[in-house]
Design a protein that fits this description.
Helix content is 44%, strand content 16%. It is an alpha/beta fold. Among the domains are: 92-152, no CATH class; 254-326, no CATH class. A hairpin with a 4-residue loop joins strand 4 (71-76) and strand 5. Helix 10 (213-247) packs antiparallel against helix 13 and helix 14 runs antiparallel to helix 15. The longest helix is centred in the middle third of the chain and has 35 residues, at 213-247.
Length: 452
């Protein structure tokens, strides 16, 4: 069979011996964005399947070891199987007795790519230890302690487990965004780990359990700040290039006819976006008239000052258009969120932040004052569009939670429509979540059960 060039690399997910006697297989379509909507009543294993898949592909071995199964893994498009036996994840009492901080350092070593070196039997020089310590941010004394663990726990840090880690990491699946069924969008974001410090240096998954809007607001502010910083850098560069070209006599080579090709709406938006304290409305109108005059000029030589003005405007207009392109995810976000919010709640962007404006009471609404459903919508699309990551595997247990029936119909198609989704897997009780184009991707949870 010939596969799509950009096909998702995993063909099948499987889990055997779940709760002792159940085995499951979930097949993924041969497409760039496979979608699986798993439907079934309680007790069919839907949540178990998505939890096992999530923990396996994100390589959260400690949490995976607490679930009841014999082996779990994936089959890749090339037919290769990558799997792990639960016995490899069993931790001894000795390892469990170590302080939680050791898990943080293990996560750092894994993230920096040095864990496989420590797991091998090859001797490590002092110089190597110093390099590992510096690059991973782990004290040498702790590295020595972790090395001692590998002697007592060869299965946990051994070649078999590290081999699985390396193969999964090599797939470059993207960031996994996981919404478990027990999520609550109320308080500050927390992650359901025994030791939250395990998340240090881990940027390959986001698990929304208690997603607070303070974290989402910070994400958006950082994104906007990066745009503004980039805009200032480009403006500064354009200004310096203008001075350079004046010194080198290149401005005289500029033809004001170039302004004729500029879009009128873009020019107006650019001029109106200028700071009112620096350029009054009367001055803005004069600048617009100047540009219109040059756009319609049919003959005659422009004044030298006009040529300088036209050249500078053309350079600044280019920066403005580049900034607008950077802001495109914000406008996509506003359009998406507006679809869910009531007509009196208007998401708005003022070049410094994204806010919600209550037109009925003429005031801004704190994100913390949104409903649980509104917070979930706001948080999910903010992470997809503002985290700076291009590919997401989105896993949702009960996407219908806190959402009205119309919102349930929009939610999954809108996630895929962001263009950020490398894979979508959702498990649901609600027929409204797939009362749309998702219907063709529905699978019966009972059909995933394999009777050996």
């Amino acid at each position: 069979m010939v596969h799509s060039v950009n096909a998702f690399p995993i063909r099948t997910f499987f889990a055997n011996g779940v709760f002792g006697d159940r085995s499951y297989r979930l097949e993924f379509s041969d497409s760039a964005t496979p979608i699986s909507i798993i439907v079934g009543p309680n007790g069919t294993g839907k949540s178990t399947i998505i939890s096992l898949y999530y923990l396996f592909i994100t390589r959260q071995w400690e949490r995976l070891s607490k679930l009841d199964f014999s082996d779990v893994g994936v089959v890749l498009r090339n037919g290769e199987e990558v799997s792990i036996d639960s016995s490899l994840l069993m931790l001894s009492d000795e390892l469990r007795s170590f302080p939680p901080s050791i898990n943080r350092y293990i996560s750092r070593l894994r993230a920096s790519g040095h864990m496989s070196v420590l797991a091998s039997s090859a001797p490590i020089s002092r110089k190597q230890l110093s390099v590992i310590s510096r690059e991973a941010g782990v004290p040498v004394s702790m590295i020595n302690q972790i090395q001692n663990i590998t002697k007592h726990e060869p299965n946990f840090f051994g070649t078999a487990l590290m081999g699985v880690e390396e193969k999964l990491e090599a797939l470059r699946l993207g960031t996994v965004l996981y919404l478990p069924t027990f999520r609550r969008i109320e308080k500050a974001i927390s992650i359901s780990h025994d030791d939250e410090s395990n998340l240090e240096k881990r940027t390959d998954f986001i698990e929304l359990v208690k997603s607070g809007m303070g974290d989402v607001s910070k994400l958006i502010k950082n994104y906007v700040s990066e745009i503004n910083g980039e805009s200032r850098r480009r403006t500064s560069r354009a200004s310096q290039e203008f001075i350079r070209d004046m010194v080198q006599g290149k401005v005289s080579e500029f033809s004001l006819s170039a302004l004729k090709d500029q879009d009128s709406n873009s020019i107006r938006n650019f001029i109106m976006s200028m700071d009112d304290e620096l350029l009054a409305n009367d001055d803005k109108e004069r600048l617009l008239q100047f540009i219109r005059k040059e756009q319609t000029r049919k003959s005659g030589k422009p004044k030298k000052d006009d040529q300088y003005m036209g050249y500078f405007v053309s350079k600044m207009l280019k920066v403005f258009e580049e900034t607008q392109a950077l802001e495109q995810p914000i406008h996509i976000f506003l359009k998406l969120v507006s679809r869910y919010f009531s007509p009196t709640k208007l998401p708005d962007y003022d070049s410094t932040d994204v806010q919600i404006y209550d037109s009925e009471h003429e005031r801004s609404i704190s994100l913390e004052d949104l409903s649980s459903g509104e917070k979930q919508i706001f948080a999910v699309f903010a992470y997809l569009l503002f985290s700076g990551r291009e590919r997401f595997i989105v896993l949702i247990d009960e996407p219908e939670l806190s959402l009205s029936v119309p919102w349930q119909r929009y939610f999954l198609p809108d996630i895929v429509g962001t263009g950020k989704c490398a894979q979508l897997v959702a498990v649901t009780h609600s027929p409204f979540t797939f009362d749309n184009e998702m219907e063709k991707f529905v699978e019966d949870a009972e059909g995933l059960y394999v009777n050996d």
